[in-house]
Amino acid sequence: MKNRMILIFGLMLFGWMAQAQNNNEFTIPLSDPAKRGKLKAHLNYGSITVKGTARKDVLVRYNSTKDADDDRHGRKGGDTKDGLKRIGGGGLELEASENANLVKVGSDSWNAKTALEIEVPSGMDLKVSTYNDGDLIITNIQGEVELTNYNGPITALNVSGSVVATTYNGDVKVTFDKTTDGTPMSFATYNGDIDLTFPSTVKATFKMKTEQGDIYTGFDMNIVSSGPVQKKDTKSGAFKMVIDEWKKGDVNGGGAEITMRNYNGDISIRKK
Description:
Blueprint: E1 7-8, H1 15-23, E2 25-28, E3 37-53, E4 58-64, H2 66-72, E5 80-81, E6 84-85, E7 95-99, E8 102-107, E9 114-121, E10 124-132, E11 136-139, E12 142-149, E13 154-169, E14 172-179, E15 185-191, E16 194-198, E17 204-212, E18 215-217, E19 224-225, E20 229-232, E21 239-242, E22 247-251, E23 256-264, E24 267-271
Parallel strand pairs: 3-8, 3-9, 3-10, 3-11, 10-12, 11-13, 12-13, 13-14, 13-15, 14-16, 15-23, 16-24, 17-23, 18-24
Antiparallel strand pairs: 1-7, 2-4, 4-9, 5-6, 7-8, 17-22, 19-22, 20-21
């Protein structure tokens, strides 16, 4: 277990793994704490919170709604069936690993809704995703952040770096302490509001589009609307016109493109 540590939670747990389950938390050491690391976290069912701290390792806390589901359905430890004593039902499945400062934590299980709370060094890159019935919450991170949530909101606060955030059904809210010059970013949701806060000194070109909503900004910018685009079919040679209207505006002279798009909701761009 030099540079790789794998923890699998199931019905059979031994030694310190059993203790970790009892405490509902464990730590993952980094191969080289002096160098930048990256966290990849994923759940099919549940919420993930990641907090940047001054620590040199990664702390994972986990919780499952399975116990609450058992209580709601009247299933308790000690119940009997045919003279046999019940000790539990389907358990939590969670896997974590570390290799060369790349930490992976996640579960592909659909059995029980899971909540992960992860503390990482602030200067760590993130790739975090959840698929169903959960929130993504990120705070105090300095690095490259990629967030995906299929059915739930995304919140990233006090970020220094860059963010790509995509959800199908939920709001997207991001506040930046500092952005990385020259790095494109994108924010998208189908059904929800996009609310972004940038430093007043940000240099960017905002590209914005909402199908059923309004766009608000606290920055001074000259807005230009894109018109119809003429395209040529390379196979048939036929021409066609495509109308895909966006609002574009430069802030502080312009810079990397920051794209914001939703279908049903407002877009708000705030100045910090």
